[in-house]
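Final report, Chapter 2: Outcomes

The project's central promise was a pipeline that accepts a single protein chain and returns its three-dimensional structure in a standardized token representation, suitable for archiving and comparison. That pipeline is now operational. To close this chapter, we reproduce one record exactly as it appears in the project archive, with the input sequence first and the structure output second.
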Amino acid sequence: MLRSLTTAGTGMTAQQLNLDTISNNLANVNTNGFKSQRANFQDLIYQTYRMSGASGGGTVSQPVAMQIGLGTQFASTSSDFSSGPLQSTGNSMDLAIAGEGFFKVELPNGDFAYTRDGSFQTNANGEMVTADGYPVVPNITFPAGATQITVSANGIVSCQVPGQNQPQTLGQIKLTLFPNPGGLTRVGQNLYAPGGASGDATDVNAGDAGSGQVQSGFVEGSNVNIVTEMVSMITAQRAYEINSKAVQTADDMLSDLNSLKPS
């Protein structure tokens, strides 16, 4: 069988995975805090017929090797953690991070997860929670009847409580930094979990240790660039077509071989 059949087949599989990644980016173009991904590929093993430097007879050696590549494979997905556009909401409970860092939340099993989506709300107990009800860490609890909620750039939360003349400070939202954000694992619901290559989480006050500042009344939009994704989609489509053309050509060659008859 011609190698080109299986080699071009790996190219078609690779471009399908590439298109899957692009489609996920486009599907999340309006998702708060979403970070776009890029599919990465690497070549497969090579069949070596002759090593470079092999003897060509006498004192002559071959200057280059003779190798045939066997295709490509899916290697990884890398994330673009550049900031998305800040969108004004006018809601003081909506928070965006202008710079590096993640909000920390607690999952029902006691584990911690991290997010860039700061569209926070309050639950029945007055706790600040995500849209899925996961409490923010450190815990911020609003007293009954709280009004005029404010969040400073360094994350200090305060509000006006009935019967008090001065605003009451409720706590300080911290941000979490990772040595390698690209090593985080996406778990859905706009959440990330620590991965083996993300490094240890470090909780800091907003604005410290290179972290960003908190912007109240804003949410961070997706950093997906629609034009870039459309161009990538067209490129993936053309690459898929040319690989399918290689499969068709190899099939035609095999058909010609099968039609040969001895004279």
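Archive annotation: The chain is about 20% helix and 35% strand.
This record, like all others produced under the grant, will remain available to the consortium after the project formally closes.
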